[in-house]
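R.M. (postdoc): so does anyone remember the format we settled on? I'll just put the structure tokens first.
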């Protein structure tokens, strides 16, 4: 069975794994999922991301989750914004901060997957994929 929204599945896997306090989460790989994971790593929300081949030969990625000293997840919330049924595009001037700068929006642009801050600095817009705080 094919998946209609693989990015939402990726985000849901991360959300569920952080609620259950797992050390890492595995999911099928794609370039977009890897780019989202790289942005999360650069912003300090996850420890890292590693790509590998599954036993059946399919590409997979392993996202290593990050927790604070008290055992709480660094990712307090993650929400899908643009979805296949309703795409959300935003110019750099309309991009708002997430929780007054405590979170980020992840945006797919013609220059790759960037944060909302990078989009405003470079003055480019794109599709708002998700918000993380």
């Amino acid at each position: 069975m094919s998946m209609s929204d693989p990015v939402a599945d990726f985000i849901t896997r991360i959300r569920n794994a952080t609620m259950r306090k797992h050390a890492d989460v595995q999911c099928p790989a794609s370039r977009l999922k890897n780019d989202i994971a790289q942005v999360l790593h650069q912003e300090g929300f996850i420890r890292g991301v590693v790509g590998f081949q599954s036993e059946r030969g399919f590409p997979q990625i392993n996202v290593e989750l990050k927790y604070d000293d008290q055992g709480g997840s660094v990712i307090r919330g993650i929400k899908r914004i643009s979805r296949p049924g309703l795409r959300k595009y935003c110019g750099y001037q309309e991009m708002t901060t997430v929780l007054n700068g405590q979170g980020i929006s992840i945006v797919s642009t013609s220059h790759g997957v960037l944060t909302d801050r990078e989009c405003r600095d470079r003055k480019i817009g794109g599709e708002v994929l998700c918000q993380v705080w």
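R.M.: ...and that's the designed sequence above, right after the tokens. Also worth knowing: The longest strand covers residues 46-53. The helical segments are 6-19, 31-42, 116-122.
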